[in-house]
Amino acid sequence: MIESFRVMAKVTQLLDVRDLVKHFPYVQRRGCFPKKVALRAVDGVSFSLARKEVLGLVGESGCGKTTTGKMIAGLLNPTDGEILFEGENLTGLSSGKKRLLRRRIQMIFQDTVSSLNPRMKVGAILQEPLLVNRIGTAKERRERLAEILDEVGLPPDSAGRYPHEFSGGQRQRIGIGRALMLHPDLVIADEPVSALDVSIQAQIINLLLELQDTYELSMLFIAHDLSVVRAVCERVAIMYLGRIVETGDTESIFAHPLHPYTRALLSAVPVPDPAVKLSVPPTSDEASSPVNLPSGCRFATRCPQAMPLCHQKEPGLIPDRAEPSHSVACFLYDNNGDGI
Ligand SMILES: Nc1ncnc2c1ncn2[C@@H]1O[C@H](COP(=O)(O)OP(=O)(O)O)[C@@H](O)[C@H]1O
Ligand SMILES: [Mg+2]
Fold first, then answer.
1. What residues are neighbours of ligand 2 (ion), with CB under 5 Å?
2. Tens digits of residue pLDDT in 169-185
3. Element (H, E) at 91
4. Which of 67, 152, 204, 287 could lock 173 by a disulfide, CB 3.0 to 4.6 Å apart?
5. What is the pLDDT of residues 197-237, one digit of tens each?
6. Whose CA is nearest to atom 5 of ligand 1?
């Protein structure tokens, strides 16, 4: 019985990321001799995403969010690990099949200036995914173009203009339109509103949520601030130096943040309820880097609650006994290695 539930649970997952690793070659110039080392941008990340679910991937700049997103979208090859999409491992597929599956995973980028070709008119940018994949006749492509412009809230005459003629918010509408052209199942939205004015952010988030509903999209929503994530995501994964340190339902993470890093992130977010007091101070600037990772827990060098064990051993992600959907990688909850 339990086994059949497990099988069902597996089938409903659209995306299953297992032990994903990306190391970049890096030349360290310390002393006289440059040394080749690995920059461990993503270092064993696992999570899954159900159909129509929105999962937030949160962490400070440089923790490996974009690299994770790009590997899932097929824009970077993983060093190790598996990306299962509907149970099929994308890293081991033939190029033809990979291309077919890749259509169903699209990415929205933070920087709309560099992600939209400045020499192409918006009509051509939006039709490009259809042309590259040889989908539809010229008439059908024009019809889809008109439809998508309407859906993302751009006037029909936008098709004949260049990206630089648009504001940041409008350019992000173009980026969203391009990602949706092929009716994907999964969208990786990489800090889609971080570069926009605060007044525009809410409009773009509302548009994304509307379209997520219409297109029944699963979404990996990458962000570095938790207040946006709280408004958008059902579940959150907190990332620190290439690893997920805490994951759970958004409400549970906000109500009972467990990891000292999550607490520090949360204390940087304005809290609407003055009764809620977070005791952990914000993280110090003394960050470790993905090149020189400390032994033990990666956060230990900055953690106000670090114990001797934290400098010796790396904690695994372990479910909270009271709430198994909420997991944390921290010895404060797992002192003897047998769970929280
Ligand atoms: N193409 C690359 N070559 C070398 N290092 C990279 C490359 N892309 C990212 N990195 C490094 O990997 C780490 C993670 O980067 P990134 O995934 O962009 O982080 P985030 O999106 O969380 O800010 C950073 O230290 C960054 O400098
Ligand atoms: Mg990034």
1. 66
2. 999 999 999 999 999 99
3. none
4. 152
5. 988 999 999 999 999 999 999 999 999 878 889 989 999 99
6. 24
Q: Whose CA is nearest to atom 14 of ligand 1?
A: 64
For residues 173 and 151, give the distance between their C-alpha atoms in angstroms, rounded to a whole number.
Answer: 9
Going by C-alpha positions, the residue among 214, 175, 209 that lies closest to residue 192 is 175
For 12-52, the three-class secondary structure string (H helix, E strand, C coil) is HEEEEEEEEEEEEEEEECCCCCCEEEEEEEEEEEEEEEECC
Q: How far apart are CA 333 and CA 19, in angstroms?
A: 22
Q: Are residues 69 and 127 in the same domain?
A: no
Domain span holding position 124: 113-181
Listed residues 250, 271, 292: the one ending a domain: 271
Backbone angles phi, psi at 317, to 5 degrees: -80, 115
Closest listed residue to residue 250, CA positions, set 240, 239, 237: 237
Tokens of residue 227, six digits: 């207040």
Q: What is the pTM of this model?
A: 0.90
Ligand 1 centroid–CA 67 distance in Å is: 6
What interhelical angle do 168-180 and 198-214 show, nearest 10? 20
**CA 77/CA 57 separation, integer angstroms:** 20
Q: In this structure, is residue 299 part of a structural domain?
A: no
Helix axes 138-151, 122-132, angle to 10 degrees: 120
- Report how far ligand 1's centroid is from the alpha carbon of 142 (Å): 37
Count of the separate structural domains present in the chain: 2
Among the listed residues 300, 256, 297, the one whose alpha carbon sits nearest the alpha carbon of residue 278: 256
DSSP SS3 for 19: strand
Ligand 1 pocket member 292 (CB < 6 A): no
